[in-house]
Amino acid sequence: MPKVIEVDPAHVTEAQLAEAATALRAGGLVAFPTETVYGLGANALDPAAVARIFAAKGRPADNPVIVHAPDAETAWRVTTGPTPLAERLAQAFWPGPLTLVLPAADALPRAATAGLSSVAVRVPDHPVALALLRAAAVPVAAPSANRSGRPSPTTAAHVLDDLGDAVDVVVDGGPCRVGVESTVVDVRGEHPFVLREGGVSREQLAALGGVGGPGVDGHVGSATRPEDLAASPGTRHRHYAPACRVILAGVGEGPQVAAGLAASGGSGRRVGLVGPGGVPAGVVGVARTAGAEDLAARLYQALRDAEAAGVTDLVVEAVPETGIGRAVMDRLRRAAEGSGGQAR
Ligand code: TXA
Ligand code: MG
Question: Ligand 1 pocket check: which of 35, 66, 140 to mutate, most ligand atoms within 8 Å of Cβ?
Answer without folding.
Answer: 66
